[in-house]
Amino acid sequence: MKKTIIAPSILAANFAYLDREIKKIVAGGAQYLHFDVMDGHFVPNISFGVPILNSIKGKYPLLNDVHLMISEPGKYVEAFAKNGADIINFHYEALANDVERWALIEKIQRLNVKVGMTIKPKTNVKVLLPFIEQLHLVLIMSVEPGFGGQGFIPSSLEKVATLRKYIDEHKFKTLIEIDGGINDVTGALAKKAGADILVAGSYLFSSRSIKKRIAGLIND
Description:
Structural class: alpha/beta
Number of domains: 1
Strand order of the largest sheet: 1-8-7-6-5-4-3-2
Radius of gyration: 16 Å
Helix content: 25-40%
Number of helices: 8
CATH architecture: Alpha-Beta Barrel
CATH class: Alpha Beta
Largest sheet: 8 strands, parallel
Shape: globular
Order of helices and strands: EHEHEHEHEEHEHEHH
């Protein structure tokens, strides 16, 4: 049985003590560090960009999982790749058609970075199926992207289960990631549905014992 990957969302960290916060999640057993990049256009919020990623590049034994919640992601993938992204994850909805989506997948692959594709809660999960074999991961948003601390959308579990069945039937190695409202209860449900990677933000960084909460997400 594969070990669940925990991807703490840096958006929820205390940026005044960022080094300390990241060291806590490393000590707790996290494997990925999730970067929610928002432009105020594709989603109604602005977060951070390349400089934050560059400031921690190569300092921690984590895969930098960059989630681009931005319009025109193709304009920025090279900069993120050069500044420490190990995975670049773009939104299906940010591109106009499949020709553009395939072109962006190939562009990211040429940068020697792993590729992910994300869908919003209202997007049909089946749109991901033609791309899965070429992706490192697919990300199901279990809240509307743009803000942290929202409630988990239960129908996200059906999407995870659909992907799990498809990936297993075709013997693909693609991972399933879920992001939004993840805690001990929803995390356990997501794993049962077939998720490989849990993105958690406020649930981890608001705790006095990040290590205990990461362990709970892995082992529940």
